[in-house]
Amino acid sequence: MTEPRARLLYIDDDAGIARLVRRTLEARGFAVEHAADGTAGLARIEAGGIDVVALDHFMPGETGLDLLPRIRELPDAPPVVYVTGSEDSRVAVAALKAGAVDYVWKDVEGTFRELLAEAADQALAHERLRRAKAEAESETRAARDRAEMLLREVNHRVANSLALVAGLAFMQAHSLKDPIAKAALEEMQARITAIAGIHRRLYTSDDVRFVEIDAYLKSLIEELQAAMRASGREHPIHLQADPIRIPTDKAVSVGVIVTELVTNAYKYAYPAGTEGAVRVEIRNREPHGVSLVVEDDGIGWAGEGQARGTGLGSRIVKAMASDLKTAVRFDASHRGTRVLLEFAI
């Protein structure tokens, strides 16, 4: 005895036709069961073990179109081939819309039985493909979820490690008496903090490919202001930021640029005892551009001539601007220093 290749349930109130269907399909390797009405058919499907259903249109008290949606609502419902003797094509169309995978015309001569066997084979093949696709998609989603979880964990660890490095730089800076070395370490601490902030955003984000730049810059500027205040420099930083999702690598560049420009403004814009603010603005420029402005109302520098300090900050800003595929521009008409960058996202 060979195992049947599939178990088919034939739902039809005509017992004679059901016997003929059983004979034809069993010759094709199917195991065939018969249900005389919709109630018995539903009960048999719910019991399990049915691979495909052949559903007749005309039955006492209901039609196959009444029963079909109830079959499709069952968990792990088998595919349904609709069998109809009606010559109205709208019946077949309605069956397909209701979830049948195929339909067969029930002719008087009985050739429909061979067609039903072919349709059942195709329905089973279609179901195997559907299940394989669903399983592959489920595995893909699970793999993606695992990867995202691991990536969040990596970002969490990187953020913690960078915060530790920034803390060590802070401790080292405060142990030095050389003001130049101390300032260099404080600036390095600010750069590390800017990058750590990106990773903090990523391990709480639903999409690690992007950073909400307004929230990130708000947090970054709060940290910069606290650090500058701790070093004895009191200048408010005002942020105006549109809610823009920026790719992560570009957000890193933006964070480093803002850190350098704000730090330079604190250092050079206002002489000792002079009050003044620093303003940061990032705007969405349709259709796919972003503009970044950092400005102050201090003594002013147009980006020409000898850079103040070591010039490292200017070189870092230019390098980050290059990563953004843009250039740094200075607004010579501004009273203080106004730096502009425009880049695509």
Layout: helices, strands, pairs:
Blueprint: E1 6-11, H1 15-27, E2 30-35, H2 38-47, E3 52-56, E4 58-59, E5 62-63, H3 64-72, E6 80-84, H4 89-98, E7 102-105, H5 112-174, H6 179-202, E8 210-212, H7 213-230, E9 237-241, E10 245-247, H8 248-269, E11 278-285, E12 289-296, H9 312-323, E13 329-330, E14 338-344
Parallel strand pairs: 1-2, 1-3, 3-6, 6-7, 9-11
Antiparallel strand pairs: 4-5, 8-10, 11-12, 12-14, 13-14
Helix pairs in contact: 1-5, 3-4, 5-6, 6-7, 6-8, 7-8, 8-9
Task: Please tell me about this protein's structure.
- With 345 residues, the protein is α/β, with parallel strands linked by helices.
- It has 2 domains: 6-138, Response regulator (Rossmann fold); 211-216 and 235-345, 2-Layer Sandwich (Heat Shock Protein 90).
- Helices cover 52% and strands 19% of the residues.
- The chain is built from 9 helices and 14 strands.
- The strands form 4 sheets. A 5-stranded parallel sheet has the order 2-1-3-6-7, with helices on both faces. Strands 9-11-12-14-13 form a 5-stranded mixed sheet, with helices on one face.
- Strand 1, helix 1 (15-27) and strand 2 form a beta-alpha-beta unit.
- The longest helix is centred in the middle third of the chain and has 63 residues, at 112-174.
- The chain is rod-shaped and about 105 Å long.
- The mean pLDDT is 87.
